[in-house]
Design brief:
about 350 residues; Rossmann fold; two-stranded parallel ribbon; NAD-dependent epimerase/dehydratase family protein; Epimerase_deHydtase; alpha/beta; NAD(P)-bd_dom_sf; 13 strands; about 40% helix
């Protein structure tokens, strides 16, 4: 099949691009040209900016594709531009949304797509705008019957990603564990969660391509290994052979310290992140999750060490400050009854 990916070189979309190519599809990637993939010559590359609507539509004016996969729509306006550009010139749209677009608290646990409603609080713009995007797409599906598939990743890690850890401190986690420095965790660290890795998630996108059972449907796709948040650091410690030191601070206090940095914890991750994959498995029978948390973190460590990552000094200092505040709080509480 002839497939266009808008994005195509990000943490998730690079895996989609590679798996589609390996499956024998003809893959065209549209991006700004700042990133390439291994074996770049196997892909067709279209260079430009989605923010320049006129130039984008002119570039695509004579093109048609069996499937258009949009990984870079974050608002209803973004999605509308994609639909308007390719209406009548593609057999299917696949849009990447997010598990954050579900309204909290959930109605079901594990979460089932068709029992939930969408996020409605503009205080967390990322989730709110993605929810508005989905609402627009559902309106188009109902009004025009377009073949649109929506896939909602939950928290997903992978090579090239900058979102690992509570502070999204990434390689700092390795550095702090190896050097006996404490790591910050929100709440008590016991909230259930499913940590997903990009190669597994990409299988769902690939399985949805040209799959009529997915037309007009929305799916979340996550790991099926039930963990708790502390496991993220504890498992990294097992990979490194060093037991990590974890300090726990209530989410509401973290929000008071920096609402922008910790909004994702407050609005999205303060609720159990367990999702039922039955729907995607029903419509994409080949889909399976195979990467465990341990295997995924080994993949991340290999990437950090292969590419020579360095610590983020700003995040190091911030985490040290939180740890110091926690230590003083513990000291005061221990002396409270004396």
């Amino acid at each position: 099949m002839n497939i266009l990916i808008l994005g195509g070189t990000g943490v998730i979309s690079s895996q989609i691009s590679q798996q589609l190519m390996e499956a024998g599809h003809q893959v065209t990637i549209f991006n700004r040209g700042s990133k390439k993939l291994p074996q770049a010559e196997r892909y067709e590359w279209l260079i430009g900016s989605r923010s320049d609507t006129a130039a984008f539509q002119a570039l695509m004016a004579e093109r048609s594709f069996d499937t258009v996969i949009d990984m870079i729509s974050f608002t209803a306006q973004d999605a509308r531009m994609t639909v308007d550009t390719f209406r009548g010139r593609t057999g299917q749209f696949i849009f990447c949304s997010t598990g954050a677009a579900y309204k909290r608290p959930f109605r079901t646990t594990p979460v089932q797509e068709d029992a939930e409603v969408l996020f409605d609080d503009p205080a967390f713009p990322y989730a709110y705008e993605k929810a508005l995007m989905e609402q627009y797409l559902q309106q188009v599906i109902q009004a025009e019957g377009l073949a649109i598939t929506i896939i909602r990743p939950s928290l997903t890690y992978g090579v090239g990603g900058a979102n690992l850890g509570i502070l999204r401190q990434n390689y700092n986690i390795v550095h702090r564990i190896r050097n006996g420095l404490p790591l910050l965790m929100f709440g008590d660290g016991k909230l259930p969660w499913s940590f997903t890795f990009a190669p597994d998630l990409a299988k769902a996108f690939v399985g949805a391509v040209g799959n009529e059972r997915t037309f007009g449907q929305a799916y979340h796709v996550t790991s099926e290994e039930n963990r708790v948040w502390d496991d993220l650091y504890l498992e990294f410690g097992r990979v490194l052979g060093v037991e990590p030191k974890i300090v726990h601070i209530p989410t509401e206090l973290l929000m008071k310290a920096d609402a922008s940095l910790f909004a994702h914890l407050h609005y999205e991750k303060s609720y159990a992140g367990l999702f039922d994959n039955s729907k995607i498995k029903r419509d994409v029978p080949s889909f399976e999750v195979s990467i465990s948390l341990n295997e995924g973190l080994r993949m991340m460590l290999d990437w950090y060490e292969r590419d020579g990552h360095t610590v983020d000094e700003g995040k190091m200092q911030l985490e040290d400050r939180f740890a110091a505040v926690h230590s003083e709080w513990v000291r005061q509480m221990e002396a409270f009854g004396v």
